[in-house]
Structure prediction request, 552 residues.
Amino acid sequence: MNEYKLQEEIERYLNGEMSPEELKEFELLRKESTAIDAKITEHQDFIKLLKQYSDRLALENRLNAIHDEIDVHTLADELMVHPSWVVQLWRNHHSKISVAASVAIFAILSIMFLTGKMTSQDSQYIALRQEVGNLKNKTDKINQKLTQNGRAERFKNTERFSGTGFAITSSGLIATNYHVINGADSVYVQNAAGKSFKAKVLYTEPQNDIAILKIVDTSFRNLGAIPYTIKKAESDLAESVYTYGYPQDSPVFNEGRVTSAVGLNGDSLDYQISIPINAGNSGSPLMDSRGNVVGIIQAKQTQLEGVHFAVKSSYLLSAIHNIPADSLTRKINLNTKNTLAGLTRVQQVKKLNNYVFIVKVYQ
Amino acid sequence: MNKELKDSIPTDSEVILGILNNSESVLKRMYVAYFPMILQLIINNNGTADDAKDIYQEAVIILYNKIKAGDFELSSKLKTFIYSICRRLWLKRLSHMSRFGGDIRDFQEHMHVEDEVEKQNDMDIQFSKMESALQLLGEPCKTIMEDFYIHNLSMQDICERFGYTNADNAKTQKYKCLQRLKKLFFQQK
Prediction:
């Protein structure tokens, strides 16, 4: 019996298609030969597996059909155990949050860098020289165009900054802040009467923010005796002080008190004072009630209102002392006689008027 | 999914009887009733909704076969049985994907069902062998095999469907196909 025939027989046997005689014969054959018996079992198992497999497929299809009717998405939303909203926010958006955070950090760092917050404490000062804006620049340019060629040169230089200065000798030495005249091409001082004099920078001490100017204009006449003296000793806390300067075109008087013997971050160069001052006040004298110069108005702190600084007068004295002898035509004689002491505040200020100047800086 | 089906969870004995009687509606009610529980288990343990579908269907098949085979004894609630099977299957799959953190968040009580899962696993291996053997067999053999052995069509019908000149030709073809299928099946490891 060949393989094909045998297979045929096995199938008929398993399907019960044999006649009783054939069945008897075949069962006999099966008993005799284990090979045939094994073949029958194998075929039986194989066909069974095939059937089970197809049953499984059918069942899977049925289940899939049922599954398709379920709204899994909504169900999943309901059943998800929701962690707190912070965690959820982080899980859903962590990449975006990270990017935003890095951008923010970068922005803060670059702003700090650009505004100079990272460089030094000086940055916390607003140097109080007044910036005369672009507007004036433009007007000057227009003027320049309007005027004739010959006269145009007068407008070549543009006034960029102004501050305040005060006379320390009757011969025309003016004290002001170094930052006021820093980078200047030319410096003019203007008195209360509105008359300008050309000045030159005689001596500077950038570390103490002090500059000494000398009026070199030929039209300048002697100022007469200086009414105030420069105080050597340090002023006490809570001492009443005032200032007189040019934050604008006309002089401004302001008063307050010495609030600290040290300046920003414990800097012993400065007093901290409670006088409201503005751009342009830089270089103004800080006077005590007896008419002594106790400091030079210097700066204010950006973060805090009403915190202002003035360079102590002792540094001014040492700066005057340090002026090289060869840059002077004659020895400096500081005024030692204070004529303001007995006067009222109003009278003091009236007298000061002649000795306080607008410092104009051209770059 | 209409409301009626959703609302009525069939009793455990109802399910067993229904499956034995091939009741489509009982199967459906059972499926719909317990799926949310499994979805909850899977999606809260690093799985997706598709994972939940796979795992749940596997469990339903185990239950179905067990009932059909007649050896299902209701030793616990059906709900617990399904949950335990799914939990076991999911743990296996998680460790297989090495996504298992050693901690599973449970929502139901559960019991030991390792044996059932193992048995099913053996069966699955056989089925996947059969699947790939049939795949390799190709047409028309695959259809002939299915028609004859699964759909129980007669040789005459097959002869007509495939346009063989006589039943003997068809028989020879069927024989060759079967031999090839067996060969393909047993060749696989």
Chain B touches chain A at residues 1, 24, 27-28, 31-32, 35-36, 39-40, 43-44, 49, 52-53, 57, 60-61, 64, 105, 123, 126-127, 130-131, 145-146, 149-150, 171-172, 175, 178, 182, 185 (CB under 8 Å). Residues 3-123 of chain B form one domain.
